[in-house]
Amino acid sequence: MSNNVKVLLVDDNPMVLGMLRGALTALAVVNTASDGADALLKAVEDPPDLLVSDYRMPGMDGRQLVEKLKSRPKTAGIAVIMLATKTDISDKLGMQDHAVDDFVEKPFFLKDAIQRIKRVIDKIALEKMAKAAPSDGLLRGSLLQMNAIDLVQSLEMGRKSCLLTLTNDKDICEMYFREGQVTHAAY
């Protein structure tokens, strides 16, 4: 499901960039940039669904990049995950948390960073599926593309209200969600 999501990774450290790209390639279409100026050009030319950017870079830093992207109508809706130190998050980015969907604290374990990024990718993929769904309001798909746990987490994070029906041969499970919380389940 997530392979229709475009991610732009931005980091001036080639090792971090390569590590993240390798881990995310299975989840999304990944493009990279090694500095803020290159990322701005790439994002304007072909807007990604998600920007994962280092906060501290020479020249245009991650904060400036996000400000420039959010100020343009074509790129204002891009989801943003910022890679930053704990000090940067609390001192400089706290004021801008409305422009950033999530933070990954540096240094990070790759597995933890990918989990956080995957949650946002899954949310974007679900939103894209909902937009492409028939106008009857039903969202259909196969869990071969997304596992049930990720789907439930995405509904919770998006604070969705819905009926989720899971079937496996003759087994049926119906889960009722209200603002992201399961209110009733029937098996």
Describe this entry's structure for a reader:
The chain is 38% helix and 26% strand. By secondary structure, it is α/β, with parallel strands linked by helices. β4 (79-85), α4 (86-93) and β5 (102-106) form a beta-alpha-beta unit. The longest helix is centred in the middle third of the chain and has 23 residues, at 110-132. The protein is elongated, with a radius of gyration of 18 Å.
Strand content: 25-35%
Biggest sheet, strands in spatial order? 2-1-3-4-5
Helix content: 25-40%
Gap from first CA to last CA: 26 Å
Main sheet record: 5 strands, parallel
Cα gyration radius (Å): 18 Å
The low-pLDDT segments are none
Number of strands: 8
Mean pLDDT: 85
Question: Main attributes?
Answer:
187 residues; alpha/beta; 5-stranded parallel beta sheet; 6 helices; 8 strands
